[in-house]
Amino acid sequence: MKLLFKLTLILIFIALITSSGVFYITWKSSSDALMANSEEMLKELVYQTMTKIDHRILFERQCDLKVIASDPIISSRDSTPQQITERLIEYRDICKTYISLSFFDQNQIRIADTAGLGIGKKNYNYQYVNDVLQGKMSAGSDVELSINLKVPVIFFASPVKDKNNRTFGVVVTRVPVHKLYEIMQEISFAPHVSNNIKIDLTNSDGLLIYSNYNHKGILKEKPSDWEEVKRSLSESKSGVIKAHTHKGGKENIGAFSVSRGYLDFEGNGWVLVLQMPTSMIYGPIRGLAYKWFFIILPGVILAIIFSIFFAYKLSKPLSNLKNVVTSFGEGNMDLRVHVESSNEIGVLGNSFNLMADNLKKMTKDLQIAEERLRLATEGANLGVWHYNLITGELIFSDRCKSIFGIPSNETVSYERFLESLHPDDREEANKAVLYAIKNHTKYEAEYRSVWADNSIHWISARGLAYYDSTRNAERMEGVVIDIDNLKKTEEELRRAFLYSRDLIESSLDPLFTISQDGKIMDVNNETEVVTGFSRNQLVGNYFSDYFTEPEKARDVYKKVLGEGFVRDYPLTIKHINGKTVDVMYNATVYRNEKGEFQGILAVARDISDIKKTEEELLNKCLELKEQADELHKTQDQMVRAERLAAIGQLASSVAHELRNPLGVMKNVIYYLKMMEIVKDNKEISDNLDMISSEIEHSNQIISDLLGFAKIKSSILINQNINLMILGVLKKMVKPPNVKIITKLDKNLPKISVDQLQLDQIFNNLSSNAIQAMDRGGTLTIETLMEDNCIKIIFADTGSGITKENMDKIFEPLFSTKACGTGLGLSIVKLLVEKHNGKIEVESETGKGARFIITLPTKIL
Predict the structure, then answer these.
(1) For 368-372, 510-514, 823-827, 842-846, which range has the lowest pLDDT when averaged over its residues?
(2) C-alpha triplet 350, 352, 355: angle, nearest 5°
(3) Structure confidence by residue, pLDDT tens digits, 326-367
(4) Closest-CA residue to 265 (of 95, 48, 62)
(5) Contacts of 849 (CB under 8 A, 6+ apart)
(6) Burial track 62-96 (b if 16+ CB lie within 10 A, e otherwise)
(7) According to the 3-state scheme, what is the secondary structure of 143-179?
(8) How far apart are CA 139 and CA 154, in angstroms?
(9) 752 near 859, Cβ under 8 Å?
(10) Which of 10, 100, 357, 736 sits a CA distance of 20 to 30 A from 200?
(11) Where does the pLDDT of residue 322 fall: very low under 50, low under 70, confident under 90, or very high at 90 and above?
(12) Helical segments of 523-599, H only
């Protein structure tokens, strides 16, 4: 095997072993460090997120609950359910967090609820009940699917104590689980990581409360790593789940943290678990491996080349070759090596001869190239310089001297070069030269030259150092060029840019420039504030992605391109945290001095305050309308009350004046009937009977008037409404062509009512219905429970009530019957209202009428 081949193999082997060792050590240390950092990052992230949940969900709701439980109305034994309900609604509207608030008595019976659900029902099987029975607050101990609301909720409960510090009730608030999602969305990773991160939040038993990937398992399942987390919780409240693989899944690492509480809140045992694939962590390591490979590869290639060259050099031991080379080096370019063998020496000799021929040719080419270079530098206005680092000699071309303002006949030294520079630039220029020499890099510098007339000129210098075989610097060569005009142009551009930036930043509204393909080219600071993204993040992205309706934003952009501008187009900007801002979008096309399209300038004027003011004005108008309606209602009630009072006074006066004469007439008729002459005359007897009947009818009218004028106070007794209706119907005489049907709810509760007054109501409505069906028909009487009230419906199939009479039927003295007093329905309405109820009527001419009485189950 040839010496060159052996040396080459040995050096290549050494280079490969060294490169592999460096690569492995770098990979291993980087991998271990990144894994450790990732574990610490996950551990810190899960700890901070759990702290937010303790503070913003559990601790704040516990504070709210303390305030609600100590409220004067809620903590008073004298407060009514209505008062407690109203106060709970106020707290719900203030907090904007709870979907409902409830109040339970000591027997766990729901007394009040903001949603009006489950009133009167008993509460069972909730953890917070046990907490409250022990006299302590329950903050998120229960997370259940609400039976009434059909959504997962977090329960908070507190005992309610009276002024003697005795527990007599419980306040329970419910927070929807989706409030947790807002906090979970604050956990941010890079977009390619966020799609692979797994987030689980459990209660103290490991049951899922929140999961970003297992929505069906919420309140039903436990996380797949729960057993490992449970074992770790016995040692620490937070920690790391080492790399592991689930069946059929990817390898993951994770971290967990248990609720630690906040201030006086001790925590409730919730556990937050985060997991991410280890492939996400090793991704940067793989990228680093590729980079290292491409960094080491050129070194390996250079090592191979060096090995070949080194081995090649060792195969030249002959002195005659040395002499030829020496003579050749002294300038005898016509001397050649005499080749006598075909081995390595012969090959080397032939190569040398070929090299000599080529070098001679290259020398001629170099001379031509130098002449061309001279012409090129003169044409490009470049100055050429040579610096001998051994002797210290510095040579400037004539053009180079003129650029530095040095007379052409003056000899230039390195010190003279530095003296020609501005005092502030000398040290940096010298450092640039020394740095390039020491680090084997290109020499590049810009500095100012001060001429004899004190004028200042900018110069750009470029150069390169050359080294001997021992890597000692021998010389530097380079060029300089006058960049004074370029610097002035740069300064003008810089000022123009600063002026443009000042104009952009002076806008108080979000402002941005957009390219023809819809991408952001520049933004002002207000745009960063409104979107939550930095300028670097925004520039280069499509502007429409930062609006709630991207398609709508793209349409208006196309409109600007087509029409040249757009005015006051409504859009909504979305912030990175989910907040939105309503804006009026204004945009126009801007062009350069040649009329060529440069971009679109857009301004989004924030109209959030304007919309808020409009909403406030609208709410105020609605409030004023409600107040006006209430005022009209009050005025109508006052007019009606005055009218009723006047009718009452008139009724009392008329009844007194008429009843005495009618009594005398009744007595006279009685005595006339006793006379023999009357008994024997049937005609006279019939006339007297007719007069007596009319007197009874007149007495009935007077009784109605007195009954309307002097309705007695109600005497309330627990009664069964169904039995009262049946009792009235039993006493009533109905025509044979009228049929009465009853549909009575057997589960109606007893309520406190005045039996005589309700009998009068039922009797009047039944009598009116029968009288309305003079040709026969059906009266249907129905009772039912609805919205915690009892409804009683009297429906007939008579002629009905005309539209013009619907608003008058309850007015006193209004009647459509030939012999009616017009007081029956007025008395019914008064008696119903005395029981805190209401009466409504529905009718259609020719199809009968429905009178609907609504009575509360508890009449105050």
Answers:
(1) 368-372
(2) 110
(3) 776 666 767 666 656 555 666 666 776 777 777 777 777 766
(4) 62
(5) 769, 772, 795, 796, 798, 800, 801, 841, 842, 843
(6) bebbeebbebeebbeeebebeebbebbbebbeebe
(7) EEECCCCCCEEEEEEEEEECCCCCEEEEEEEEEECHH
(8) 9
(9) yes
(10) 100
(11) low
(12) 525-531, 535-538, 550-563
CB 260 within 8 A of CB 267: yes
CA 803 to the chain's CA centroid? 53
**Helix, strand, coil % over all residues of the chain, rounded to 5:** 50, 25, 30
| DSSP-assigned beta bridge partners for residue 241 | 254
List, as own/partner pairs, every contact residues 117-121 make where C-beta atoms lie below 8 angstroms and the sequence separation is at least 24, other chains included.
Answer: 117/148, 117/149, 118/147, 118/148, 119/81, 119/788
β-bridge partners, 449 = 421, 457
Determine the Cα–Cα distance for residues 180 and 174; give it in Å rounded to an integer: 13
The pLDDT tens digits for 681-701 are 777 777 777 777 667 656 666
Does this model's pTM top 0.85? My answer is no
Looking up tokens 């009167």, which residue turns up? 120
Report the alpha-carbon distance of residue 237 to residue 54 in Å, rounded. Answer: 14
Q: Which amino acid is at 766?
A: S
HEC string of 198-246? EEEEECCCCCEEEECCCHHHCCCCCCCCHHHHHHHHCCCCEEEEEEEEC
